[in-house]
Q: What sequence folds into this?
């Protein structure tokens, strides 16, 4: 990753401003560069969708855990010992069923369960997704490759306040008896946002 | 204030001129981060400093003095305890104040009044068009929905984010059918669930 | 970060059966985005502002863009909105005035080309 990768004048201007801002804050002792380094490293390496995937995989194999996850998500996630970010905004896990498909958005900005899943993908933050998924969810999901049958209700969760949402997708057919690690590998970030299904069992390796 | 002369810029100025400055920063981060004091109390202490001291002790000197002030006021340090330690004396041990550290948790609060609305109750999002900021998205204004969840009480961002106080109030999960939001163009079998503060809602 | 409970499954997320970490997308596209994100989080974690205070300014910047351009992706730059929101907050909190920032930008702009070649990585 380099600031030379995006060489348009606007990006270069922003890079310069961000650097200037950081240098002033460092000089004033308001931030320390090593604290910034540690935070970036944490989000690049430790906090990411693989953490949410563990919770999903456990919920698929353990019905009591599933109920705990749906009732009090952070408490259930704490059982897993995964690294999380500092935000302790309430988290609600919403389950997909044969009757309901859930999808998450933040129409106002970009809110996302980042403390568990890491940073959201660019498309999640885009004006088009944020405006359209509340208005025409079935169409948007179809464009993104997910067909939801007309008899299934699509429930769009708009994270307008402090509560963050994560989808508990349906377990893929053919994955019966699989160990948790193998199941977790089927769970993508997009499935936990609700714009995709988990990987099919037959395509997984290992 | 005027008349202080040209700003002296130190070429290649280091982040900290001396290790103690970095230590003060570390203490401050933890004092605030763990909830022994608040950043507002700390800023206020700087504002209250004796003007002569303010101008003579330097940037981290101000932080050091203010940190001591707020920790004494919070009851974490005894008055004069630091001076005593510098003189080689230790004051008698005293228990830390009850209620500290106060965890700097999220924005959940206990509201003064019970929730106005209950699950299953129909509500309407008010037609607010404030000049300032609001979390009530445009697409919801004037629309009718149903309470599906009472989340608890939270700090109200419309006021808190702009220094006008917390005004903690109840937050509700409200369900809006697609047909109500989008009329004839709505897709079938779709709904939007949004989290709305009590001030945004009225009975329907 | 909680310790794993005794007897809890230790999931192997570095080995061959590891779940995907990034779902095919970089966490940060550029160095400056990562530094800006880290600086914002560092100040928030130190208690210098409530997250609402940053979030509302971010909402305002995104809203400004959308009022001018509609809900179209073209031209939308998320971290440009983030930077503008953070600059405003830093100025309001007395952490970095607009004048100081402009002066520093001018100073950095006058650096010779290639000054940062030791620092950039790909």
A:
């Amino acid at each position: 990753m380099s600031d030379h990768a995006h060489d348009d004048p606007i990006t270069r201007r922003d890079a310069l401003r961000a650097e200037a801002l950081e240098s002033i804050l460092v000089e004033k002792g308001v931030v320390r560069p090593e604290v910034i380094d540690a935070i970036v490293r944490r989000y690049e390496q430790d906090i990411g969708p693989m953490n949410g995937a563990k919770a999903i995989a456990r919920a698929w194999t353990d019905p009591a855990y599933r109920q705990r996850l749906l009732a009090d998500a952070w408490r259930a996630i704490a059982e897993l010992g995964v690294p999380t970010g500092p935000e302790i905004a309430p988290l609600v896990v919403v389950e997909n069923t044969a009757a309901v498909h859930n999808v998450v958005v933040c129409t106002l900005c970009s809110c996302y369960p980042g403390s568990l899943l890491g940073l959201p993908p660019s498309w999640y933050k885009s004006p088009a997704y944020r405006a359209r998924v509340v208005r025409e969810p079935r169409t948007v999901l179809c464009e993104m490759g997910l067909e939801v049958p007309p008899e299934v209700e699509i429930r769009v969760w708009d994270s307008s306040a402090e509560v963050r949402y994560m989808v508990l997708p349906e377990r893929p057919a053919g994955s019966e008896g699989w160990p948790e690690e193998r199941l977790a590998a089927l769970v993508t970030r997009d499935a936990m946002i609700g714009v995709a299904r988990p990987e099919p069992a037959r395509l997984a390796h290992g | 204030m005027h008349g202080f002369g040209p700003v002296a810029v130190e070429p290649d100025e280091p982040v900290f001129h001396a290790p103690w400055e970095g230590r003060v920063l570390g203490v401050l981060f933890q004092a605030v981060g763990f909830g022994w004091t608040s950043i507002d109390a700390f800023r206020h202490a700087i504002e209250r400093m004796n003007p002569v001291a303010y101008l003579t002790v330097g940037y981290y000197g101000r932080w050091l003095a203010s940190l001591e002030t707020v920790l004494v006021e919070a009851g974490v340090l005894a008055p004069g305890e630091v001076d005593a330690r510098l003189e080689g004396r230790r004051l008698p041990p005293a228990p830390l104040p009850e209620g500290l550290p106060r965890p700097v948790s999220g924005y959940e609060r206990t509201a003064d009044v019970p929730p106005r609305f209950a699950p299953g109750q129909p509500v309407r999002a008010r037609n607010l068009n404030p000049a300032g900021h609001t979390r009530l998205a445009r697409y919801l204004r004037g629309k009718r929905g149903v309470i599906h969840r009472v989340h608890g009480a939270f700090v109200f961002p419309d006021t808190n984010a702009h220094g006008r106080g917390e005004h903690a109030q109840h937050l509700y999960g409200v369900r809006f059918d697609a047909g109500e939001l989008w009329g004839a163009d709505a897709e079938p079998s779709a709904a939007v669930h949004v989290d709305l503060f009590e001030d945004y809602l009225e009975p329907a | 970060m909680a310790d794993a409970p005794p007897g809890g499954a230790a999931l192997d997320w570095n080995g061959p059966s590891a779940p995907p970490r990034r779902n095919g997308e970089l966490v940060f596209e550029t160095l400056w985005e990562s530094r800006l994100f880290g600086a914002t989080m560092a100040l928030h974690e130190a208690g210098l502002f409530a997250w609402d205070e940053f979030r509302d300014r971010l909402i305002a910047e995104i809203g400004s863009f959308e009022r001018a351009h509609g809900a179209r992706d073209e031209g939308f730059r998320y971290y440009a909105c983030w930077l503008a929101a953070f600059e405003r907050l830093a100025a309001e909190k007395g952490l970095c005035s607009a004048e100081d920032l402009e002066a520093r930008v001018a100073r950095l702009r006058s650096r010779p080309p290639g000054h940062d070649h030791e620092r950039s990585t790909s």
